[in-house]
Write a structure and sequence with these properties.
Keywords: NADP, Oxidoreductase. This is Tropinone reductase 1. InterPro entries: NAD(P)-bd_dom_sf (IPR036291), SDR_fam (IPR002347), TR (IPR045000). By secondary structure, the chain is of the alpha/beta class. Helices cover about 40% and strands about 15% of the residues. It is built from five helices and seven strands. The chain has a five-stranded parallel beta sheet with strand order 5-4-3-6-7, sandwiched between helices. It has a two-stranded antiparallel sheet with strand order 1-2. α3 packs parallel to α4. It is globular, with a radius of gyration of 17 Å.
C-alpha cells in the first residue's frame, strides 16, 4: 500500500483496525453478541450494547469495565419501538451524534412446529428478529451519515439455509 493511504489493516498482525470507530451491538450481553462486542473492542472500536436481560448485561459490563474496555450499555427491549428510539438517543449522546457500525444481532427462537406457534408468539419473533433491525437501521441512518462511514450488519443463522425441524419461523426471520 502506498505511503499516506489509510488502511483498516494493522500491518503488524494483519488484523482489522477499527480505531476511532463507534459501534452499536444489540443483544450484547451473551453468546454471539457478547463475542461481537469483545471483537469490536479488540479491534479498537468504542462499543455501545444493549440487552433485555439486565442481570447478564450488568455482569458483562462489569467485566468489560474491569478490563478497561470502552463499552457503554443499557437495558433495552428491542420489541418496543419507544425503547429502540430511546436506545438510539443514548447512542447518539454517547458518541457525539455519530455511529459507524450497527450490528443487528438479537434473535428470539421458539423450538416448536409452526402449527403450535400462537399469533402472539409470531408477533414477538417478528418484532424481535425483523422489525427491530429494520427500525434501528432507519434510526441509525442520520448518525452514520454524520460519521461519514457507516456499516450495518445483520446476524443471520445457519437455519436459514439448512432445514431444521421446529425452527421454520426463526429461519425465515434470520435469512439475510
Amino acid at each position: 500500500m502506498a505511503e499516506g493511504n489509510t488502511s483498516i489493516l494493522n500491518g503488524e498482525n494483519n488484523k482489522w483496525s477499527l480505531s476511532g470507530m463507534t459501534a452499536l451491538v444489540t443483544g450484547g450481553a451473551r453468546s454471539i453478541g457478547h463475542a461481537i462486542v469483545e471483537e469490536l473492542v479488540g479491534l479498537g472500536a468504542s462499543v455501545y450494547t444493549c440487552d433485555r436481560d439486565e442481570t447478564a448485561l450488568n455482569e458483562s459490563l462489569r467485566r468489560w469495565k474491569a478490563l478497561g474496555h470502552p463499552v457503554t450499555a443499557s437495558v433495552c427491549d428491542v420489541t418496543s419501538r419507544v425503547e429502540r428510539e430511546r436506545l438510539m438517543e443514548r447512542v447518539s449522546e454517547t458518541f457525539g451524534g455519530k455511529l459507524n457500525i450497527l450490528v443487528n444481532n438479537v434473535g428470539t427462537i421458539l423450538l416448536r412446529p409452526a402449527e403450535d406457534i400462537s399469533a402472539e408468539e409470531y408477533n414477538l419473533i417478528m418484532a424481535t428478529n425483523l422489525e427491530s433491525g429494520f427500525h434501528l437501521s432507519q434510526l441509525a441512518h442520520s448518525l452514520m451519515r454524520q460519521s461519514g462511514k457507516g456499516n450495518i450488519v445483520f446476524i443471520s443463522s445457519a437455519t436459514s439455509v439448512v432445514a431444521m425441524p421446529s425452527v421454520c419461523l426463526y429461519a425465515t426471520t434470520k435469512e439475510n
